[in-house]
């Protein structure tokens, strides 16, 4: 068999294999220092993703990994078709593009590595011109230590659960979310877990939570837009089972004013009315409803203006009016006060208070709750637990929330539940468990 | 238990609501600018390559290629930004009950009207600039209408391809980056104008330009036209001497004296006829069918892509 070995092939592939092994060996050292599974250093594509994790460049790491996979596919295809010069040439074009893209992403990741290892920026030149040698030094030398390790959730247990469903009530929105999971880059993530509450009709509710706590995921699960392992009841209606009809009974106002700027206010509202109101509604009823909504949100005077010509406050009110046209039972607003000054924001929240007083459930996300907190009945506090899962840390009246968290403002409550690396106190698990105990006492 | 007795507007009604929106945008968002733009492009093409269109083989091939390019250009620019510029709005409206099929259907109707107007403008400009039209007609009593149908189908096919790109792209920048690539593919793989290797020929079936060019050449009865390039090239060599004589000059003098120039041009053309360009209704219908099939494929793909709009990240 030895006589069949083509030594020119060995000469060609040999240095590449050696370089791969050297880099893997270097990655092994870096992974050990950063707290990543060392075996990953030898697996193609997986090692690329994990070096990006070490560099705190997860997003870039995903692209880097995909590019690496494509690169290997192209190289293997080139090897298979090496006899056909036209195919080889054809494959060489994307290979060149992939090589450039890998180079650029490599630089981004090594820059991140330099920051994490707290070294001078000049090191990037060493990575560009002597990549293998530089990685070898960084991996094996004890002088090079990261300032931050990769957070591993393996073996970390989340805060204990309530695990009890709340009974549905005629006059409330009953939320029983067991779990909301998502697959993200081949990894299963639990976004929300064990959230149970009953929000009475006529309540204006503040939804509070730090970045990544799952506020939008929670709202999407509640509205049935992204279904969770959950049972959501609006009165005695199951939102998930009757979603196609119930969606007209739920208004969701997104953070951005998503409307066509080159249409008039009246036509924008008319189109929304035509799309969302029942066919059975007479033209007269529809026009009356439109006139009422225009008046309620102070848009009558500008009804013939183009949306682009409206002020920030007017545009926000129109965005809310588009959802309110159907007179929804459940009304959800994602940061309706973003970009508005204090006075305009206060007026807007007073309008929302009026809507809640009509017997609707209004849930609002806002990042500046304290200026309008007197208008709210309840507050929902979502927090990331130790496993980075969105959990319910509190739901109840606003005044009791201060008592529960031992704080004097909503911003202080937010700080107490935020993770330490986000500048918070990192007490999310403590409050999640405290609230679960409180609920167990109540439910029995 | 409370029961719902209300119904909401279905796909048909929603299509007309969105059609209304699109026509208002035509006025307020300056989408009407594509109409004068198509007139300018048609005038430029007519001026540059219109002289021998449907008059000689070479002029017809070049002219129909240019006309196909005009159609593709118009189609691309009509809709390349239509969806991606309002993607977040569509996502919001989809959440509130918009049917994607209605949304795309509204675009299809609106773009069809726009394409018809552009084809009318193109034909009017060609007539105005005294461009020769095909003399015979295969389907309707008017050759210009037959040609107009081909121009419309090419424009509409390109339009729907751009709509697909617009549905696929998250931003207008991404859509405008992809567009030149598609344009170059449409031009290079038109099949007849550029000589391609045999392996590349199947790819020409993907392009609207190939079917447009083939249909127009067939409608213009390409194979009955004279070929002038051989004559013109030979004429340039008339003074070449062979053993003291000028055989080409002698031949030309003979041909002219006997009034055989046209016979020569037709004989030259006979050697270069292309059976794909025969004056045959079947060929034109086949080209139209391909254009319609591709249009349908693009529309279906756009609908499928847009159905996943809810997956867009914030």
| Chain pair with largest interface | A-B, 32 and 30 residues
Q: How would you sum up the major sheet of chain A? A: 6 strands, mixed
What oligomeric state do the depicted chains represent?
Answer: heterodimer
Biggest sheet strand order of chain A reads: 6-7-8-3-9-10
Number of helices of chain A: 15
- Which CATH-level-2 architecture of the largest domain in chain A? 3-Layer(aba) Sandwich
* Rg calculated over all Cα atoms of chain B: 24 Å
Our measurement of the CA-to-CA distance between the termini of chain B, rounded to an integer number of angstroms, reads: 37 Å
What is the name of the CATH superfamily of the largest domain in chain A?
P-loop containing nucleotide triphosphate hydrolases
For the largest beta-sheet of chain B, the strand count, sense and barrel status come to: none
Describe the global form of chain A.
globular
List SSEs of chain B in N-to-C order. Answer: HHHHHHHHHHHH
Task: Give me the secondary-structure category of chain B.
Answer: mainly alpha
N- to C-terminal distance of chain A? 77 Å
Low-pLDDT windows of residues of chain A: none
Beta strand % of chain B: under 5%
Please give the share of residues in helix of chain A: 40-55%
CATH topology assignment of the largest domain in chain A: Rossmann fold
Task: Give the CATH class of the largest domain in chain A.
Answer: Alpha Beta
């Amino acid at each position: 068999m030895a006589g069949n070995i083509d030594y020119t092939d060995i000469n060609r592939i040999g240095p590449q294999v050696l370089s791969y092994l050297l880099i893997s060996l270097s990655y092994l050292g870096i992974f050990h220092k950063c707290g990543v599974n060392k075996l990953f250093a030898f697996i193609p594509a997986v090692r690329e993703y994990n070096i990006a994790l070490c560099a705190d460049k997860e997003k870039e790491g995903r692209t880097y990994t995909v590019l690496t996979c494509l690169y290997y596919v192209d190289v293997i295809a080139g090897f298979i078709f090496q006899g056909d010069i036209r195919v080889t040439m054809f494959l060489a074009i994307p290979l060149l593009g992939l090589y450039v893209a890998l180079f650029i992403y490599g630089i981004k990741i090594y820059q991140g590595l330099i920051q994490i290892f707290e070294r001078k920026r000049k090191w990037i030149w060493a990575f560009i011109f002597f990549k293998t040698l530089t990685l070898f030094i960084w991996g094996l030398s004890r002088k090079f230590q990261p300032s931050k390790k990769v957070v591993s959730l393996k073996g970390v247990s989340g805060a204990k659960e309530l695990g009890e469903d709340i009974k549905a009530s005629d006059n409330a929105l009953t939320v029983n979310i067991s779990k909301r999971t998502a697959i993200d880059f081949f990894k299963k993530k639990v976004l929300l877990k064990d959230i149970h509450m009953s929000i009475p009709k006529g309540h204006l509710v503040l939804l509070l939570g730090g970045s990544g706590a799952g506020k939008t995921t929670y709202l999407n699960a509640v509205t049935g837009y992204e279904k969770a392992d959950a049972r959501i009841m609006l009165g005695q209606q199951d939102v998930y089972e009757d979603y196609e009809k119930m969606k007209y009974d739920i208004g969701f106002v997104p953070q951005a004013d998503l409307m066509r700027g080159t249409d008039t206010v009246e036509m924008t509202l008319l189109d929304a009315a035509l799309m969302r109101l029942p066919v059975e509604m007479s033209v007269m009823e529809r026009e009356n409803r439109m006139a009422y909504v225009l008046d309620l949100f102070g848009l009558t005077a500008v009804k013939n203006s183009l949306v682009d010509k409206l002020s920030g406050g007017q545009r926000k009110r129109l965005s809310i009016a588009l959802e309110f046209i159907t007179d929804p039972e459940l009304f959800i607003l994602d940061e309706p006060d973003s970009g508005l000054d204090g006075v305009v924001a206060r007026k807007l929240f007073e309008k929302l208070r009026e809507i809640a007083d009509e017997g609707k459930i209004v849930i609002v996300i806002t990042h500046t709750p304290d200026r309008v907190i007197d208008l709210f009945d309840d507050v929902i506090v979502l927090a990331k637990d130790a496993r980075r899962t969105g959990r319910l840390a509190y739901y109840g009246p606003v005044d009791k929330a201060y008592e529960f968290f031992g704080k004097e403002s909503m911003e202080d409550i937010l700080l107490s539940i935020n993770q330490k690396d986000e500048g918070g106190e990192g007490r999310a698990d403590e409050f999640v468990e405290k609230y679960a105990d409180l609920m167990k006492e109540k439910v029995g | 238990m409370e029961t719902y007795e209300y119904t909401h507007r279905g796909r048909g009604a929603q299509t007309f609501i969105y059609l209304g929106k699109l026509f208002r945008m035509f006025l307020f968002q300056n989408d009407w600018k594509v109409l004068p733009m198509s007139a300018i492009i048609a005038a430029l093409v007519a001026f540059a390559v219109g002289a021998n269109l449907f008059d000689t083989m070479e002029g017809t091939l070049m002219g129909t290629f240019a006309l196909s390019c005009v159609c593709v250009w118009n189609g691309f620019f009509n809709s390349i930004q239509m969806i991606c510029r309002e993607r977040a709005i569509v996502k919001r409206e989809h959440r509130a009950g918009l049917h994607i099929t209605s949304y795309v259907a509204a675009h299809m109707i609106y773009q069809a009207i726009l394409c018809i107007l552009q084809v009318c403008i193109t034909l009017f400009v060609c007539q105005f600039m005294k461009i020769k039209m095909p003399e015979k007609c295969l389907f309707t009593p008017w050759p210009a209408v037959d040609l107009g149908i081909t121009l419309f189908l090419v424009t509409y096919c390109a339009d729907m391809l751009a709509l697909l790109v617009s549905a696929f792209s998250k931003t207008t920048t991404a859509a405008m980056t992809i567009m030149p690539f598609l344009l170059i593919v449409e031009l290079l793989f038109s099949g007849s104008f550029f000589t391609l290797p045999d392996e590349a020929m199947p790819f020409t079936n993907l392009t609207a330009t190939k079917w447009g060019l083939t249909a127009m050449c067939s409608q213009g009865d390409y194979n009955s036209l004279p070929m002038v390039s051989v004559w013109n090239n030979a004429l340039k060599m008339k003074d070449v001497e062979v053993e003291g004589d000028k055989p080409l000059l002698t031949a030309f003098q003979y041909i002219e004296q006997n009034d055989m120039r046209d016979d020569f041009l037709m004989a030259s053309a006979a050697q270069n006829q292309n059976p794909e360009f025969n004056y045959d209704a079947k060929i034109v219908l086949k080209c139209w069918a391909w254009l319609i099939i591709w249009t349908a494929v693009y529309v279906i793909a756009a609908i499928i892509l847009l159905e996943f709009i809810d997956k867009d990240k914030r």
